[in-house]
Design brief:
The chain has three domains: about 35 residues, no CATH class; about 80 residues, no CATH class; about 130 residues, no CATH class. About 60% of the residues lie in helices and about 5% in strands. It has a two-stranded antiparallel sheet. The relative contact order is 0.10.
């Protein structure tokens, strides 16, 4: 699972006045608003995408989805099952999925969630939910990853009630790291039922943020778990300081000194 808002470049175009002169369109800063035309995936581009490997397909289609190309989000929805287990995280893809998740367009956010599941080879079915619940109950150092992905599966419509019940078991866990994982899982689930337990955690547990920052500094932390740690920090604090533990530590220190 709160939110950074990105200023869209289209704002300039939508508030400009277009004039046609000598065959050219001139954008003026004054005058009535002129709507920019919506970009659409062309037949030619679709042929190119269909010929690509899954890794290249996901990169192209996510970029188009972020830029609101008509049909791009639908193509992601159609293809994620086929991508599952065939794509992997890269620096560029991670940047794009983070951008997508913090978009103010809910369809763009949904695309990020779908791609994360495909990246981690997690199929959208009840068996996956049951497996993650069992693995979380068994303990270990992957609880953050497991509870976060439970939240994503519930958000995508896979056993949301069961997911909520499983996450709720850990809300008052004595381990602060586990409680931090629950915050992220509930935020990602995003159903009405998550509001009360999230408020309860925020109200009664002041250790979530420093614990997450401590985790972010652990060099042995698994890559996927580290990603969720930084995402939870962004969700809870509404700050976007990237994936740099030094910046987060500096920010938290400044907040503490102001108290």
């Amino acid at each position: 699972m709160p939110n950074l808002r990105l200023l869209p470049l289209a704002l300039l175009a939508s508030s400009a006045f277009a004039l046609v002169w000598g065959g050219h369109v001139l954008l003026q800063l004054h005058g009535p608003p002129v709507a920019a035309s919506s970009a659409t995936l062309s037949e030619h581009e679709m042929e190119q995408i269909n010929a690509m490997a899954p890794q290249d397909q996901v990169t192209r289609l996510l970029e188009r989805t972020i830029n609101h190309y008509k049909g791009a989000a639908d193509e992601i929805a159609k293809r994620t099952d086929g991508w599952t287990g065939k794509i992997h995280s890269t620096a560029d893809l991670q940047t794009m999925t983070n951008t997508a998740y913090f978009s103010n367009d809910l369809r763009v956010r949904a695309a990020a969630l779908e791609i994360w599941l495909a990246e981690y080879n997690l199929r959208k079915n009840s068996a996956t939910v049951d497996e993650l619940i069992r693995d979380a109950a068994a303990g270990g150092d992957r609880k953050y990853f497991l509870l976060s992905n439970l939240g994503i599966l519930g958000n995508r419509g896979v056993e949301p009630e069961k997911v909520f019940d499983a996450l709720a078991l850990y809300v008052h866990d004595p381990d602060s790291a586990t409680r931090a994982a629950v915050i992220n899982g509930l935020g990602l689930l995003g159903t009405e039922s998550t509001i009360a337990p999230l408020l309860d955690v925020f109200r009664n547990d002041q250790k979530a943020v420093p614990e997450l920052i401590r985790f972010s500094q652990d060099p042995t932390l698994e890559g996927s778990t580290r990603k969720w740690v930084f995402q939870a920090l962004r969700e809870i604090t509404l700050q976007n300081l990237g994936n740099d533990p030094v910046r987060w530590l500096s920010w938290y220190g400044a907040q503490t000194n102001r108290r």
